[in-house]
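Fig. S4 source data, part A: sequence.
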Amino acid sequence: MATMAFGLSSATLSCTNSLLSHKNTTFISSLKSHQRTLPCSLLGTKVFISKTERPVVIRTCHSQITCSASSSTLPAALLFDCDGVLVDTEKDGHRISFNDTFKEKELGVTWHVDLYGELLKIGGGKERMTAYFNKTGWPEKAPKSEEERKAFIAGLHKRKTELFMALIEKKLLPLRPGVAKLIDQALAEGVKVAVCSTSNEKAVSAIVSFLLGPERAEKIQIFAGDVVPRKKPDPAIYELAAKTLSVDPSSCVVIEDSGIGLAAAKAAGMKCIVTKSGYTADEDFQNADAVFDFIGDPPEERFDLAFCRSLLKQYVS
């Protein structure tokens, strides 16, 4: 396939086999100057260059797209959201744990699958419960004063976290494909790795420790729960991570799965790759630097550390 011009620069695309049509959509904001071969899972995708308003639809072959780019500066840090990114926890993890807590406390409340999807637009479990009860009415067993209700919600959330951690410790919820691979690549290159989540810190620590293992866990910093006063889509947690890790926000690449997480990352001035999860597949990720179904392990790999590095370039060369 011939070289295609994108205004400021060009990418040379090569393939040899029959044309295929794919439904994947990838937003590529930039490429660095190394020979980049995108995995076959990306072929036939819509590619969006950040400096270009109109998408370029590339229909290609089985084998590969080879893109020429320049320089190879590594990200200073990879920052992962937890729920939906490390593990697809929401539907069969957090939601089940909330419902089991409500049942234990005899509150007469059940969050069904679609309802919980709507509630996920609110960052933080305590905030989620408070907003739900404010809208639908507080249970009869709930206290009346605002201060007592805060303590009531905190107690529910504490129990919910215990039930959720039990699920994680039993390894009933697996890591998403490619997570361990990408983290290992980053750590091997000296890239700092952190997890930034609105979930309870104990729950996030359990996921990192039990599913990623103690050797990785000791190298990963966790920013979670009430470590910041305002949760996603506010950028506070990503700003705190950059400050604590002593890195420039513009040198960070965030892996998120939701619209509110994407908004938080971009407001913090960071690059953001979205790996869609069960509840977020239909959200609007137009502002993302790239969008994939998952990270992936070979032979189903969608992207790797080299791709994260490529996003730090502001133009295609």
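Fig. S4 source data, part B ends here. The first strand starts at residue 4 and ends at 5.
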